[in-house]
Automatic annotation (TrEMBL):
<feature type="domain" description="CAAX prenyl protease 2/Lysostaphin resistance protein A-like">
    <location>
        <begin position="102"/>
        <end position="198"/>
    </location>
</feature>
<keyword id="KW-1133">Transmembrane helix</keyword>
<feature type="transmembrane region" description="Helical">
    <location>
        <begin position="34"/>
        <end position="52"/>
    </location>
</feature>
<keyword id="KW-0472">Membrane</keyword>
<keyword id="KW-0812">Transmembrane</keyword>
<dbReference type="Pfam" id="PF02517">
    <property type="entry name" value="Rce1-like"/>
</dbReference>
<feature type="transmembrane region" description="Helical">
    <location>
        <begin position="98"/>
        <end position="118"/>
    </location>
</feature>
<feature type="transmembrane region" description="Helical">
    <location>
        <begin position="64"/>
        <end position="86"/>
    </location>
</feature>
<feature type="transmembrane region" description="Helical">
    <location>
        <begin position="12"/>
        <end position="28"/>
    </location>
</feature>
<feature type="transmembrane region" description="Helical">
    <location>
        <begin position="157"/>
        <end position="180"/>
    </location>
</feature>
<dbReference type="InterPro" id="IPR003675">
    <property type="entry name" value="Rce1/LyrA-like_dom"/>
</dbReference>
<dbReference type="GO" id="GO:0080120">
    <property type="term" value="P:CAAX-box protein maturation"/>
</dbReference>
<comment type="similarity">
    <text>Belongs to the UPF0177 family.</text>
</comment>
<protein>
    <recommendedName>
        <fullName>CAAX prenyl protease 2/Lysostaphin resistance protein A-like domain-containing protein</fullName>
    </recommendedName>
</protein>
<dbReference type="GO" id="GO:0004175">
    <property type="term" value="F:endopeptidase activity"/>
</dbReference>
<feature type="transmembrane region" description="Helical">
    <location>
        <begin position="130"/>
        <end position="151"/>
    </location>
</feature>
Length: 202
């Protein structure tokens, strides 16, 4: 994707994009039939916020070998963190979709592209407004982690927040850097995200 600092994003565009993403996420979280909502909301947000520049993010990814590395790094990290959580007596909730891969296999690609449009969109919008790469990707990871709170709610704010920030938040950091390392192609982070979720849901 073209460096976002090379063009100006008006404030109203960010507002409309934020509403589109928030609406898509709310529909996805509220209604089982709205599995497509964040994907559609994300497409609308990108079209409004990044306009024609958005097409560059859908270019062919470079360095395809980064994808399996990203998947393995996250799965190993998740395994270590999960075992440590058990040792400290934390009763973290499993993904409610685990074991139901067959029912979701055709929906997952669209749902995860919606999450990528949200995560990468926050990263690039923050950079456009002058935030550093570190600040932008941390903001993206924080929001991405927090949006999973009610999916992994275990009855404790401390435990749930620790869970989503350490696992989903760190996953977002990995996906963001895969995106950047693969030539700012959202296909790279999306393929990595799909690989992680498919293996996690088996």
């Amino acid at each position: 994707m073209e460096d976002v600092k090379n063009f100006k994003i008006e404030g109203w565009r960010l507002g409309v994009g934020g509403v589109a993403l928030a609406s898509g996420f709310w529909l996805l979280s509220t209604f089982p039939w709205a599995w497509w909502a964040l994907f559609i909301g994300g497409l609308i947000a990108w079209a409004v916020v990044f306009q024609g520049h958005a097409r560059a993010a859908f270019s062919m990814p470079k360095k395809l070998w980064i994808i399996p590395i990203g998947i393995v790094v996250y799965l190993l990290f998740g395994l270590v963190v999960g075992n440590l959580a058990l040792k400290f007596g934390l009763n973290w909730s499993a993904n409610p979709a685990a074991g139901h891969l067959g029912l979701l296999i055709f929906k997952i690609p669209f749902m995860l592209m919606g999450e990528e449009l949200l995560g990468i969109g926050i990263l690039e919008a923050a950079r456009n407004k002058g935030a550093s790469l570190t600040t932008s990707t941390l903001l993206s990871a924080l929001i991405f982690g927090l949006m999973h709170v009610f999916v992994y709610w275990d009855g404790s704010w401390f435990s749930t927040l620790l869970h989503v920030l350490l696992l989903q938040g760190v996953a977002r950091l990995i996906f963001n850097y895969v995106y950047l390392l693969m030539g700012k192609s959202i296909w790279g982070s999306w393929l990595t995200h799909v690989g992680v979720d498919l293996l996690a849901l088996l």
